[in-house]
């Protein structure tokens, strides 16, 4: 798995980490949807975009994760942003965040875009300058695990797992963070299989606990609920969706009312 893929998965599953990273309230994540967008009639695809919910004035956040030096990165980033704006004409203003592991990767070729950086409309974050993991929120400390060297990553991972169990009350959120940590460890130790990693970090025992199993069930139910709007868009009735997802009609109706979705009725 590529490093940037881990980041995009992390922000997809736990978007609050992104807002912590840019020194905003993690609760803002509830007002956004993280996705990728195609730039029409081009071969361009913006992999990381936080789109604000409708009827809000929050900015669109374009995200770029870069772990290899690329002299064209800023030219490409601004081309994608301005093409997106031209094609979609969003009412919300925009901001961008570029994430590097360290300064040496950043070409800093911004002479054509200096004003955007001076105004902080575009922000650059160097992960190795975020501070010690023990003093960081769990989400940001998890990001730091990605760039930790192998000698330190084992200790950091164990500390993170302990903190996750102690500091996160929500079963579902705890399970999400632990799964992300496990994914990072699999990426960092490619010669070890999943079972070996689970045994090394005590995750195999954790997964057998009632707490973890309940969190897993909660996550599966949430995935079903999240699928409802898309199935409605495809033209399925509430009854069909309830049968496919094994949900009650009351649950389907509640989601429809919350999102003001038009549905077909039998």
TrEMBL record:
InterPro entries: DUF2887, RpnA. Signal peptide: none annotated. It comes from the Bacteria. This is Flagellar assembly protein H. Pfam families: DUF2887 (PF11103).
């Amino acid at each position: 798995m590529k490093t940037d893929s881990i980041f995009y998965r992390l922000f997809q599953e736990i978007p609050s980490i992104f807002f912590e990273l840019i020194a905003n309230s993690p609760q803002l994540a509830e007002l956004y949807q993280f996705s990728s967008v195609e730039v029409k009639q081009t071969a361009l695809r913006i992999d990381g975009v936080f789109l604000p919910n409708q009827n809000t004035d929050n900015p669109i956040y374009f995200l770029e994760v870069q772990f290899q030096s690329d002299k064209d990165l800023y030219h490409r980033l601004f081309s994608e942003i301005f093409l997106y704006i031209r094609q979609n004409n969003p009412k919300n203003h925009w901001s961008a965040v570029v994430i590097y592991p360290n300064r040496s990767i950043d070409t800093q070729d911004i002479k054509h875009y200096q004003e955007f950086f001076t105004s902080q409309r575009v922000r650059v974050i160097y992960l190795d300058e975020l501070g010690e993991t023990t003093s960081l929120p769990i989400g940001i400390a998890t990001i730091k695990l990605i760039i930790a060297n192998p000698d330190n990553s084992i200790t950091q991972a164990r500390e993170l797992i302990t903190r996750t169990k102690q500091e996160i009350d929500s079963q579902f959120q705890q399970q999400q963070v632990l799964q992300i940590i496990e994914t990072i460890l699999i990426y960092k130790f490619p010669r070890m299989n999943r079972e070996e990693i689970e045994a090394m970090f005590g995750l195999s025992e954790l997964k057998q606990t009632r707490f973890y199993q309940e969190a897993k069930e909660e996550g599966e139910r949430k995935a079903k609920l999240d699928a409802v709007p898309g199935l409605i868009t495809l033209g399925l009735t509430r009854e069909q969706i309830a049968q496919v997802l094994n949900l009650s009609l009351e649950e389907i109706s509640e989601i429809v009312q919350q999102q003001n979705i038009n549905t077909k009725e039998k």
